[in-house]
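ok so i was messing around last nite and threw this chain in just to see what happens. nothing serious, just curious
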Amino acid sequence: MLCAYVAASGDDALTIINVTDPSNPAFVGSVQKAALPDSLDNCYNVFVLGDYAYLNSYNDNCFTIVNISDRTNPTLAGSLAGSGAPNFLLRASAVFVVGNIAYAIGENDNALTIINVANPAAPALLGSIQGAGAIPWLGRPDQLYVVGNYAYVAATDDDSLTIIDVTNPAAPVYSGSIRGAGAPNFLNTISGVFVIGTIAYTTAALDDSLSIFNVTNPAAPALLGSIQGDGAPNYLDGARNVFVVGNYAYVAASGGLADSLTIINISNPALPTFVGSIRGTGAPNFLGAPQNVVVEGNYAYVTALWDGLTIIDISNPAAPTFVGNIQGSGAPNFLDMPRGVKVASHLSTGVVQTLPATEIT
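result:
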């Protein structure tokens, strides 16, 4: 069974959807704030690895682990909470997990916090790094991606792609950054980051942009290319998140001039070009304020703040088409204001990873 795991912030819920038949997504199970007090209030993000889902609760300042071995009945495994020292999880909004280590964002603590999750019942602080407006350039970090010894952080208030060396989880250190609203870097309110090898892809909501950076030298990331534009022809208004597969970047563009899943050809990083898009809030495409996108095979799974979970056929990138949708606040679907999404099979020991959604203000 292929499942989508959705952080539904309006329902304070982790909701699991069977997407084996993409034309008929179906509710499997959910756990809400009522069952997990102080652990899921306004949950923004989810990361799935094996039999556990890792979430951040924005209002509870909490990192939460849910046992999903029984998809029909997810249950609390453990949590770690607290604003300021020592946990720095004020307005927790993003999480990424590698092996037994979780990397969490404390948005209003301007912090990256690293947590040992070897024992899901008792997650334990390993280390953290904080600071805004100067090195380490972590002003209101919203999203992150971890590859090897580095965490790549989208720091919204600092308009910065910030790279942190996490070789020693107990003492993460600043490595480098690239910053700036407008030309040439187009990082105004950076809102998404995805990394493959030595290339980082970012989206910036107020620059309506996708930017591409060479991160071969983490101390000095360098711009390769970018593409911008709110409405036609590029449909990147309010670009929030990006997922990259092969020669294409799939962008969830949440602004009113887009409401779009937009596909960009990145085969030449110096000159990314528009390929296709599918747009529109409500029927027939159900893409009202897209927050997140993950790609698996020929399908893109998009969380739309006003329209639930929408599945798009991307086998022809120039002409993506609507396949299926599931939505609804409260019972039975618990998909009010969905933000984060991951997709993984029932027997998976790994994860198909996307980036957390950012707060709409």
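not much to say yet. The chain has one domain: 2-345.
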